[in-house]
Write a structure and sequence with these properties.
about 180 residues, alpha+beta, Metal Binding Protein, Guanine Nucleotide Exchange Factor, Chain A, four-stranded mixed beta sheet, 10 strands, about 25% strand, binds zinc ion
Length: about 180
């Protein structure tokens, strides 16, 4: 019986560990969020109310999501639509510029709405990289890499954390009833 109890406890522990590591999904919405017209400034406490813990870690603390996670699988499966900032709603990218860089994170070769995507030098980790941020709320989105040889019109890769994006699929045009042939 003791052995069984131990086994049960181990199972419970394993289950709770699994649920703690449950992966987050990319936000999806059928309606486009309201675009901010000016800079969005909030306190950390305010951001915590809007964002999930993982979104907060990535967007406000320059974190990086785990590659090849559920969010990346969702990204690869998504069809035409737009990608907005999960924090402030600004439109950042569209599916027209997305490509599969096989790197484990959503990749785009060009921002759809350049005025909402900003870049700045990032000297963390002992290297010089280009950080990609949301120009409207300063959320950390990912990094920009150039000249890697990708067969895209710009040969640049906006390597973005999917968790900080909100996907809005294009409205599928209502299919017209085929005209009856008399
Ligand atoms: Zn934003």
């Amino acid at each position: 019986m003791k052995k069984l109890n131990h086994l049960f406890a181990t199972l419970l522990l394993a289950l709770s560990l699994t649920s703690c590591q449950a992966e987050e999904a990319m936000e999806t919405s059928n309606t486009a969020p309201k675009e901010p017209t000016k800079k969005v400034v909030k306190t950390e406490a305010e951001w915590k109310k809007i964002l999930t813990a993982e979104q907060f870690r990535v967007a406000r603390k320059s974190g990086t999501e785990r590659p090849n996670g559920a969010v990346y699988k969702q990204f690869k499966a998504q069809e035409s639509g737009a990608y907005h900032c999960a924090g402030c709603g600004a439109k950042l990218f569209t599916s027209k510029e997305k490509f599969d860089a096989h790197c484990g994170w959503p990749a785009f070769y060009d921002p759809a709405n350049a005025e909402n995507v900003a870049t700045k030098e990032d000297r963390s980790l002992g290297t010089v990289r280009t950080e990609v941020t949301c120009a409207k709320c300063d959320a950390h989105l990912g990094h920009l890499f150039k000249g890697e040889g990708f067969n895209t019109p710009k040969d640049q890769r906006y390597c973005i954390n999917g968790i900080v994006l909100k996907f809005v699929p294009d409205k599928v045009a209502e299919k017209e009833e085929p005209k009856k042939i008399k």
